[in-house]
Write the structure tokens for this entry.
Amino acid sequence: MKACKIGDNVWWVGAIDWERKLFDGLIPLPDGTSYNCYLVQGSDKSALIDTVEPSMKETLFARLKSLNVSRIDYVISNHAEQDHSGSIPDVLSAFPMAKVVTSDKGKPLLLEMLPIPEDRITVVRDGEMLDLGDRSLQFIYFPWVHWPETMLTWLPKQKTLFTCDLFGSHLASADLFATDEAAVLSAAKRYYAEIMMPFKTAIEGKFGAVTKLEPQVIAPSHGPIYRRPQMILDAYREWTSGPPKNLVLIPYISMHDSTRLMVTHFVEACMDRGIQAEQFNLADGDIGKFAMVLVDAAAIVFGSPIVLGGPHPKVAYAALLANALRPKAKFLSVIGSYGWGGKLAEPLQSMLSGVKAEFIPPVLAKGFPRPQDYAALDELAEAIRTRITQTPTAAPPQPESSPQSDQTKYVCQVCRYVYDPAKGDPAGGIPPGTPFEKIPDNWVCPICRVPKSMFKPVWAVPAAAR
Ligand code: FEO
């Protein structure tokens, strides 16, 4: 078990957790995860940046041993959550001279959660430098990625930024670097949706502090390292600050098929109006995929039967999760069927009070849906189309029969980036005003790097293909 060099005297000494299936007892990890930590060896001092999940501390020590590390002077704690801080007590025992370096809010959190002597913790200020001899580290306070104490560590000499949770991905991989950018971007989007989306305002507010550094390497503490940081920076800019997309998400449960019939009709009604729609069956769906669609959706329409006088518990869970994740959706509604009575829309609306969106009146059918219920679903789809049209989105809806023209926008089938001919893709060498058909075949999606062939006209994207 060896350390891996990621730069001159900068080493990855982390652990790959191939087997982990769940995080926080909540988040599915279909591809495992990793706990990255890094050793920076200066001419005078050495610093370990974060540690690993305590269950994997032997891996960390084995990698340090492979380098014959005899002293660590500083353990930088960018984030006090135990998957990064939990092995600090063992590192302090193994290296008695080492001091923990953390933010002002990091110190009390570490003291509360771990057996660390207070006199071994040093607090650094925002922007403070730490001299290691031939290089220095700088600390950048970046609260709320993902706790209030979080900070980033910057190694100016090598333009490397250590970001802990920020820009991470739950992805166990033998490739330490983000070589397969499409795969890493997909994992990073899942991670953003599940972990970072509630903090998008905080990320937006401090984003400039990252971009102005012009990092050449971004080294998070979960998932692969970015040697082309622009990819993940562009994606985060879009996820946090971009407008919602022309997309309706319909999470639903059906017990006796009535709600499913309503959902199917509603999805088709949206498609007929040029709205992208994605139905998501909560009975056995991957809640991480649900969260990923929340990143982009302009509207969320929950489908549920009434069970024991209220929403189906799995729909209630999805509503509570959406509420906690704070998506940028602008419109909410409810559709579903009931038998003898109860309330559906009111409790769901209450559970979604944290989503700052307009609640459009629900469509409820007594028993199986009848013509008037389908007509009401058509009206709901039309109401959403009207609102999306009046709201800035990345891809305004167009009629299904929209003729193709030089101004036709194209959507990436992987990440939903929309190519707008009016804007072009100047960073990719495509000037504004270039119709999609005129783009060279070797052009790739600026977000997820898939080829041009992965794009379709916005108005021609069927829900089933998304
Ligand atoms: Fe990876 Fe917030 O811990």
